[in-house]
Description:
By secondary structure, this protein is mainly α. The protein has a single domain (11-87), classed as 434 Repressor (Amino-terminal Domain) (Orthogonal Bundle), CATH 1.10.260. It is built from 5 helices and no strands. Helix 1 (13-22) packs across helix 3 and helix 2 crosses helix 3 (38-47). This is Transcriptional regulator.
Amino acid sequence: MKNNSHLLKFMTGEVISGIARLYGLSHQDMAIPLRCSRINVQYHMRNNSFAPYQKALILELFQSRGLEETELLFYHQLVSLKKEKQAV
């Protein structure tokens, strides 16, 4: 496992939710490596409250499905732009 700690700050609940949809992952698919319930995953996504170790496990899951670092950064940027437009 390579060190991806610099990417964890980009793993917000909205980004995780969007990438999961892109890769066809359900809450249950993410709950298995986290060893929690799908309801718990839903709660963390909605409230953006994943712990750093949980974000690392989810990032590892996404990368096993083919996620590249640039895709993560791009998706984070899209979410940020959407928030800015909604604030205006």
